[in-house]
């Protein structure tokens, strides 16, 4: 009798596998809701906060799908319900999209420090992600960190040389660098004039 009950009830591994699939599906659903809210933000800026919230919720679903979490649910079975390579790739693609999309929302909201934080998440895994490099370069430019802005925008331009958005930001950077150099020259000239006057 007990054999029959065991064979009819799902195994721990199957429960975990179902949970993984459910979380991936829920994360994708939330990402799509974020995408819809982002598209609506063209007409309604408050939709940006809705999009951000949905992307953040999706990230929470995807981020919780590491092997250690599920392996710890089944005592003595360290390799139980490991994520397949296809699942890992699917999760990575969706996480990267969510972080990049959050960064896009934050650019529109001019929350530059948070743009940097979200693009860093992308660039940790994919250091040549053009969108993340572009948005982080844009953020650094607005935070007046011109050296970091130049590094990111130059790398993004090398990866996507025909991207007009990157070219626009590089032009802004060039102008900002030129203004900074003029200001520095003027400040140094004033300092030298004051020093010469004090020696007379």
Automatic annotation (TrEMBL):
TM spans (from-to): none
Keyword field: Repeat, TPR repeat
Family annotation (SUPFAM superfamilies): TPR-like
Name listed for the protein in its UniProt record: TPR-like protein
TPR repeat start and end residues: 130-163
Entry superkingdom: Eukaryota
InterPro entries: AIP/AIPL1/TTC9, TPR-like_helical_dom_sf, TPR_2, TPR_rpt
Organism: Physocladia obscura
